[in-house]
Amino acid sequence: MAELILIGTGCGIPYKKNGPPCFAIKEKERTLIVDIGYDSLYKILKYVNVNSIQDIFITHTHPDHFWGVIPLCFYLKCLSKSTQKSFLRIFGHERVGFFLSFLKDYYSWFERKPEINFFKVEICESGIEVDGIYYYALKTEHSEDSLAYKFVVSNKKIVFTGDAEYNSDLVKFAKDAYILVSECSFLDNGKGHMDIRGFRKLFFESGTEKIVLVHNYRENGFDKALFKLKDELKESLIIGEDGLKINF
Ligand SMILES: [Zn+2]
Ligand SMILES: [Zn+2]
Q1: Which domain holds residue 63?
Q2: Model confidence, pTM
Q3: Ligand 1 center–CA 115 separation, angstroms
Q4: CB within 5 A of ion ligand 2: which residues?
Q5: Sheet containing 147-153: which strands, arranged edge to edge?
Q6: Domain count of the fold of the chain
Q7: What is the CATH number of the domain that holds 188?
Q8: pLDDT digits 0-9 by tens, 159-170
């Protein structure tokens, strides 16, 4: 039994129930984080035992997905005297690594425990194992460094699109997912992002069991289109809200 916690379900514009992207997968004593937007630390502390976090996967380096890494690292370093935590692994595109090595050079406090190590994500069909959890990555159409992730946890596929435009590679990647956390930024013309049409197609073509809508820029008319989609997809569509938990 594992749990997906929607810690942050928003986008570049923060809303009350939809802060910058941040998700946690809890399995046994271990927590894996996907994305850590600029305002995530306080909410992570609310939902997760920080000592249980071993791995953080970053979809791309835009501030709404990544800049919470600085407050989290600082927090862990400040705690270093009172915690047993010895390491944290951060996975992502090599540009994530550039940023982290800059932080290491810039801040002397970065040398304190826990050790924070960067791992460049490999795009590999057979998946990569990290302590019993398999992950897969896919380059998406959004930014130079944008990736989607898939994790196999408790024999179920959990997929995160990150920021991504709809395409057939993403459909293939998300095939038969149990939970697909998908961005849906705009009503239409989702260039470099998903729009409602692409989101709907991704759901039906991938055959995913549940799709979670996040990263909504709340354009005029979006709510009306979303209402129609909810009527069609019923329980299979979960509209993302910060703090929501899904057991699987
Ligand atoms: Zn974003
Ligand atoms: Zn982005």
Answers
A1: 2-247
A2: 0.97
A3: 28
A4: 62, 163
A5: 128-130, 133-139, 147-153, 156-160, 179-183, 210-214, 237-239
A6: 1
A7: 3.60.15.10
A8: 999 999 999 999
